[in-house]
Fold this protein.
Amino acid sequence: MNIERIKGRVNKMAPKMETLNTEENKSDNGSGIASTTDNSLNFKNGIIGKQQSENEDRSFLLKGTKLETEINNNRITDLGNGSEIVYFPRFLSYDDAWRCFDYLNTQIPWTRPTIRVFGRSCVQPRDTCYVASEGLPKLVYSGYQPQPYSWHRFPLLLQLLRAVEEAISGSRYNSLLLNRYSGGNDYVGWHSDDESLYGPTPQIASLSFGCDRDFFLKKRPSKSSPSQVLEKKSKDEPVSKRLKRSNNTDQHSFTLKHGSLLVMRGFTQRDWIHSVPKRAKVDAVRINLTFRLVL
Ligand SMILES: O=C(O)CCC(=O)C(=O)O
């Protein structure tokens, strides 16, 4: 994996980097853990910081109201029937996002487990790790039960958790599934995160680092719906072609950028499925964090 090459590629498109305020980084960030390592972040350089300097009013950082207004004006995709997506393309600054990438890529104990799909065992097509608060019900997916690591082992993850919770008012998370896609052959197939331990309307916040990847959403096919007929006719075609051809509101796509935050909420997990498909032309690493609340 050539990280420097990926960084160069993203840099061309990135806005000018801002200087980190290292003194601020050393203060308590609200997580109860003082940030004193080189990996500490100053979120003022991201979208939150921009708002802060423009408005000189920090109260929204606590209440989330102004950011929430911005969400309501610009960044929401209403999927209908109480499902919605909120997308912040530059939640973290370019620089902070690369600090996160480097930390996650080297410090997380990644594994590539064997899972069961349609009754067959296979190696999961991406690396994974699971972090969760103590005493939560166990997560099991595709016959695999990841052993949770403690948040306190990874102070940077606690910082990211707090930043996401502050940005989306009223949100709270106690578990985190991490995925690492080492190239375009790594992917996650169509699924929804509708495990009962998340309740009926989970809010899932997804942070992306490294190379851009497509993220597709499509309406969950019902037994006799026209979308299932489409599925049958075209199941050998690449997912992207299908999405482009059927130009309706039953599917959406996002390019998940380095430093971006995407939030799925409402009934999205009940009514929609999502995927990050293979990409032949991608040869760089992407890391994704999905924060979830186990009830
Ligand atoms: O990598 C992503 O953006 C999606 C990950 C995902 O769908 C999942 O962890 O359930």
